[in-house]
User: Fold this.
Amino acid sequence: MVSYKDLGLVNTRAMFAKAVKGGYAIPAFNFNNMEQLQAIIKASAETKSPVILQISKGARNYANQTLLRYMAEGAVQYAKELGWRHPQIVLHLDHGDSYELCKSCIQMGFSSVMIDGSSLPYDENVALTKKVVRYAHRYDVTVEAELGVLAGVEDEVSAEESHYTKPEEVIDFVTKTGCDSLAISIGTSHGAYKFKPEQCTRDPKTGKLVPPPLAFDVLKQIEKKLPGFPIVLHGSSSVPQEYVDIINTHGGKLPDAVGIPEEQLRKAAKSAVCKINIDSDSRLAMTAAIRKVFVEKPGEFDPRKYLGPARDEMVKLYKHKIINVLGSDGKAK
Ligand SMILES: [Zn+2]
Assistant:
């Protein structure tokens, strides 16, 4: 058993309480390779932003759980090397789908886990979440749960249709399970194709798709039922069109990729939403930068010459999110 405290990591409790009060949100960035992790830590250290490093089950299978665990430990030391005196870094399991997986992550040094029982019937979701919370709290590990279903595809998580979180269920759910934060469904979606073209309107000037707005009325009702309780938004990439355009003009094929407009996320960050998950945007930044090198310098075959620019592009993206969308810069000096 490795405690996250010995690795220099923190859980989400104090971080979320401050964020809810302060009207900003903590970035939760997924990683599964060294360049992504370097970019996340560099951007967080340079902006002094608390940060959540997320590992999905797919990432764990891709990169090896032991290696990822040591990478997170290394990330804390790297942050200090970059001059961040008191790094506030959480290591979080994204979309845990079983008690056993959550338990194993907690034993490996994760400071926070998500148990996603959102596809189960309500009572089973309650029972599973409760069981994970009971185990996690023994080690002061915080637990994110989910109510409602997000559409879209992300690693092993996928659903055809979304179902908004029912505000009338949230008090009962949070009380019965004892979870520390709640992921809700108000119209965000996983992946780079968050909406079908027929769900969107088209901007008459640019011809680009404009997605439907988030259900802020549902968020408001949930906030009223659970004053000050930390709320989480998944599937909150904005799918920057400049990356999609670079990809499409450099041999890629991402027709009609569309995300959540940043002004909507900015608005959400000011509410009880205190954790915003961003994964697809960094995948797009990385892919766009790599494709550009491959087309412009076809003779290049040193991975550092295309992963390096990809890493630089991700640092730029993460800093932009932290400063201009979530408002978490300067909150972890
Ligand atoms: Zn998610």
Notes: Residues 303-326 form the longest helix (24 residues).
